[in-house]
């Protein structure tokens, strides 16, 4: 987990240097750190709090070149019990599932596509996310 946390910090430092709109500001870093700690152990009974989730979802807007550790974090998050909350919303998580599926068609490095495939596999870990991806796939192919 140390490598993932370091990669996220390094990429965020670059975002701060570039004054990018999707940087994680220092005052929100605690939420990201807490999120990483919780999802690093999928058996952790602690729920993901809204500020932690918001911070994580903000990472999904990072430029493609910075997203490998973000998608790896997504992969871990999808194994955590709190991830099911994303798939019980008004769109059943289609927004987030579509973001992942969209990365497979992007012109990006193969490593990003590989970690995206791993994250997509983890969608089948929970009931809510499984229903979400199956529904989305049915819509795409009908």
What does this entry look like structurally?
- This protein is mostly helical.
- The protein is built from seven helices and no strands.
- Helices cover 59% and strands 0% of the residues.
- It has one domain (2-140): Alpha Horseshoe (Leucine-rich Repeat Variant), CATH 1.25.10.10.
- The protein has helices spanning 2-17, 29-39, 50-59, 68-77, 94-103, 110-122, 127-140.
What is the rounded Rg?
A: 15 Å
Count of DSSP strands: 0
Distance between the termini: 40 Å
Task: Enumerate how many helices there are, as a single number.
Answer: 7
Content of β-strand: under 5%
Integer count of domains: 1
CATH-assigned fold name: Leucine-rich Repeat Variant
CATH C-level name: Mainly Alpha
Overall pLDDT score: 88
List keywords for this structure.
142 residues; mainly alpha; Leucine-rich Repeat Variant
Q: Outline of this structure?
A:
Helix content is 59%, strand content 0%.
Layout of strands and helices, then pairs:
Elements: H1 2-17, H2 29-39, H3 50-59, H4 68-77, H5 94-103, H6 110-122, H7 127-140
């Amino acid at each position: 987990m140390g490598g993932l946390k370091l990669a996220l910090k390094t990429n965020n430092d670059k975002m701060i240097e570039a004054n990018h709109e999707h940087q994680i500001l220092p005052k929100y870093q605690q939420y990201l750190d807490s999120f990483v700690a919780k999802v690093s152990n999928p058996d952790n009974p602690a729920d993901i709090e809204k500020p932690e989730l918001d911070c994580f979802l903000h990472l999904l807007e990072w430029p493609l070149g910075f997203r490998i550790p973000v998608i790896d974090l997504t992969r871990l998050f999808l194994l955590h019990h709190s991830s099911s909350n994303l798939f019980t919303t008004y769109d059943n998580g289609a927004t987030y599932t579509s973001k992942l599926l969209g990365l497979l068609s992007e012109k990006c490095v193969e490593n990003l596509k590989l970690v995206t495939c791993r994250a997509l596999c983890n969608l089948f870990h929970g009931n809510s996310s499984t229903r979400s991806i199956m529904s989305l796939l049915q819509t795409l192919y009908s």
